[in-house]
Amino acid sequence: MTNLGPLDRTLRAILGALLILSPLLLNAGGIWIYVIPAIGAGLLGSAFMGFCPAYTLFGIRTCKAKDASGN
Predict the structure, then answer these.
(1) Helix, strand, coil proportions of the chain in percent (round to 5)?
(2) Are 50 and 63 contacting, i.e. CB atoms less than 8 angstroms apart?
(3) CA-to-CA dists, residue 39 to 13, 16, 53, 63, angstroms
(4) Are 5 and 62 in contact (CB under 8 A)?
C-alpha cells in the first residue's frame, strides 16, 4: 500500500539524508547525535517504501489512487 506521492517521497529522501548527515556536519553532541539521524532514517525509510503510518492514521494520501485495473 502506497500513500506517498512522488514529491512527498523526494522531499522525505532529501530531508532524511540531511538529518542523517547533520551531526557530522554540525558537530552536534549529546543525545542528539543519535536522535537526529534516527528521525532521518525514518524519513528515508518511508520515502523508499512509499508508505507513512502517520498518514494512514489521519487519512492523508499524497499519491494518486489506483483504479481496479491497477493503473
Answers:
(1) 65, 0, 35
(2) yes
(3) 12, 7, 14, 23
(4) yes
14 in Cβ contact with 20 (< 8 Å): no
**Are the CB atoms for 41 and 20 separated by under 8 Å?**
yes
Distance spanning both ends of the chain, measured CA to CA: 14
The pLDDT tens digits for 29-60 are 788 899 999 999 999 999 999 999 999 999 88
- Please give the Cα distance from 20 to 17 (Å, whole number): 5
Amino acid (one-letter) located at 59: G
